[in-house]
Design brief:
Distance between the termini: 99 Å
Oligomer: single chain
Largest sheet: 4 strands, antiparallel
Radius of gyration: 33 Å
Helix content: 40-55%
Order of helices and strands: EHEEEEEHHHHHHHHHEEHHHHHH
Number of strands: 8
Number of helices: 16
Structural class: alpha+beta
Length: 436
């Protein structure tokens, strides 16, 4: 709403921008049911008048619930006082005054009071921060922004669930770090000194391994890059020191490839388990071991991926944003499994990653017992089934360019991370160099 005001008042508002009035107040709306039936609620009313130019102002109203209910006839909005006839007069009057004093102090301080410390049982001051929305104390913390980033990535249809969970884990670590040092982090606080302190906390207090710290920083930087691009729209004060090579700690873990041998993969493909969950896990493992796909792609296959005769064509979920497409001749062993579900894997193979990896261990424990001479071990994960496909391609003499194309990779350096060459293969390769 807008109203005309006197020149003196307008000039005052123009100088201070906004004026606030605070009072004890009842809307005189008796409760119709419950323990407070017939009583009225006492609230603290904050009226904010903002000068809008040309002798106009805008009024906004905010109410803070004191949680006190009184008989309608015992309260006066004019005097803002409670009649001594009211039962529990001292308690109710004191609580009303206490909430009023807190709100008034907050307004007079222009939002400087720490509302988190202004505790009065049952009273929620949260929306009072809206009166001074631009104050640092009332803006979103870095932890809040991290949660928003996580929620965005969870709904972008491109980010893997495991990545979303890791983002959430880092958000929790930021919150715990703030709690430890007794101070909230805002995005403009991110600096080399903040990074030093955050790393020290992870090393000394949490005892994180270097690889864990490295992963935390990778996610941290991705979050900061997201907000750096949107800093103007969101009116964020931040720097881009996080892009400096010296920003961050930890060391990336070297995940050594761990592949099945050609013989072991053959046993895995031909063996049938009586237990349904083991049989399902075995087929999922074979899909990976004969196509090189990641776990996140197992349940995405549909007839459209096989529309070109004799080929498997799909876009891996992990690399969707880069439009990397896998094109490979359809392996007959993999096709046999696809045919069983009419080339739709989504319904049959929707086992969660949390269950799939333990099932893989169960599969190999059973194979160790069934085939003792095959030298199976039970230390494999879904990632190692991709190692298996790529390593067997290398051992079989497939050219590296084809392997890259079949695996959805773009760099030979990355491909090297998947190759596991056993001693027997190395020995045979060396024999090729021996003079006759």
């Amino acid at each position: 709403m807008a109203k005309s005001v006197s020149k003196e008042v307008a000039e005052s508002w123009a100088y201070t921008n906004t004026k606030h009035n605070v009072r004890r107040f009842s809307q005189n709306r008796p409760a119709k049911k419950g323990d407070n039936k017939g009583k009225v609620k006492i609230e603290i009313e904050v009226l904010s008048y903002t000068y809008g130019g040309t002798n106009q102002y805008h009024r906004e109203r905010l109410l803070i619930d004191t949680t006190i209910w009184v008989d309608k006839g015992n309260w006066s909005n004019k005097t803002q006082k409670l009649s001594k006839k009211e039962s529990d007069y001292d308690y109710k009057s004191n609580k009303i005054d206490a909430v009023y004093s807190t709100v008034l102090s907050y307004i007079n301080s222009k939002g400087q009071i720490d509302l988190d410390q202004a505790y009065i049982e049952g009273v929620d001051y949260g929306n009072l921060r809206e009166v001074f929305p631009n104050r640092k104390e009332n803006r979103k913390t870095f932890h809040d922004l991290f949660i928003d980033f996580k929620n965005y990535r969870a709904t972008d249809n491109e980010t893997a669930e495991s990545t979303v969970k890791r983002i959430g884990t880092v958000a929790i670590s930021i919150k715990n770090f703030d709690t430890y040092r007794g101070r909230k982090t805002y995005i403009e606080d991110i600096s080399f000194i903040w990074s030093d302190n955050y790393n020290q906390w992870m090393v000394q207090e949490k005892e994180y391994k270097p690889a864990t710290i490295h992963r935390n920083y990778e996610i941290l930087k991705n979050c900061l890059r997201y907000y750096w691009k949107r800093r103007d729209e969101l009116q964020l004060e931040m720097n881009n020191k996080f892009e400096d090579p010296d920003f961050g700690y930890g060391k990336k873990a070297a995940n050594a490839p761990h592949a099945l041998s050609i013989e072991q993969r053959e046993i895995l493909f031909n063996h049938k388990f009586k237990k349904p969950y083991l049989e399902k896990a075995r087929k999922m493992m074979c899909i990976q071991a004969f196509t090189g796909c990641r776990y996140s792609d197992i349940k995405l296959f549909a007839p459209a991926n096989f529309k070109q005769s004799g080929k498997l064509i799909y876009t891996p979920k992990k690399t969707k944003r880069w439009d990397i497409e896998v094109v490979q001749p359809l392996n007959p062993n993999a096709e046999a499994i696809f045919k069983e579900v009419n080339y739709y894997t989504g319904e049959e193979y929707k086992t969660s990653h949390q269950k799939y990896n333990p099932y893989i261990i169960d599969v190999f424990e059973a194979l160790k017992e069934e085939f003792p001479d095959a030298k199976f071990t039970a230390d494999y994960t879904s990632h190692n089934m991709r190692d298996t496909f790529i390593s067997i391609c290398v051992k079989s003499g497939v050219n590296f360019k084809s392997i890259l194309k079949w695996s959805g990779l773009t760099k030979y350096e990355t491909l090297d991370h998947y190759i596991d060459l056993d001693d027997e293969f190395e020995k045979k390769e060396m024999e090729k160099t021996v003079l006759e």
